[in-house]
Amino acid sequence: MRLSTVILPIHRWAEGQKIWRRAEDLGFHAAYTYDHLSWRSFRDGPWFGAVPTLTAAASVTQSMRLGTLVTSPNFRHPVTLAKDLITLDDVSGGRITLGIGAGGNGFDATALGQEAWTPKERADRFGEFVALLDRLLTEDAVTERGTFYAADEARNVPGCVQRPRLPFAVAATGPRGLRLAARYGQAWVTTGDPKLYEEGTPEQSVAALRGQIERLGKACAEADREVADLDKILLTGFTPDRTRPLESVDAFVDFAGRHQELGFTEIVIHWPIPDSDFAADQAVFEAIATEALTQLG
Questions:
Q1: What is the DSSP string of 146-205?
Q2: What is the pLDDT of residues 65-99, one digit of tens each?
């Protein structure tokens, strides 16, 4: 089991760099950030870009992995994103993981002036987006004419530091997304079943996650791949447990143990943000970071 954190890009860098350094000092496997133009209740406050933030984080850390949870096609194009990722992978010395998902109907969905896509349109675009990005990150030059995205002799020399490319952590729960995770992913990401967030129970959430992993296994079997080959990442804070696992080390160990039994290999907890849905005691959070994994065995 690995323990990682997600640091929302809400801090001016004079303060933000201290948090990224502290995350590495605490021993987190990875520190991720959200890749949005703005997000939910944070829309009217500070919110910085994911790629520049990760580039800066790479310059103040040495060994901790870095990445997005998650990037989506809502305002990204594979050609420009690939160039940014290759650069970021180089700056970080090969420490980047791209969390990638289909996106939703949040503020990003219409920020460029377009109508929000339907779930089917998002899935259609996501499939083409991932496939083209895979090529752009593994081939020196790519020409492609798709329904939604095109590339004309797009050059990406020298490519990623990580070979054959930096890893994809594909966020998915539906059948099409799970097939993409099985084909292109080095990891799979879930936040649980959103329908259970308001009125579900932790037990119902565990059952739903078990079902998601079973469906992932079927998708992997169809792709002639072992499901054990994929890391399985749970981004916490969106299940009925909410922030309760961060109330104490014992509470987190109990939560993590139940999900480890399901097959999860990495749990991601939000860096505490006062007066928000991610509020938590900083001292308890840091104790979890330094003590919890040794109790899991």
A1: -SS-EEEEEE--S--SSSS-PPEEEE--SHHHHHHHHHH-SEEEE---GGGTTT--HHHH
A2: 999 999 999 999 999 999 999 999 999 999 999 99
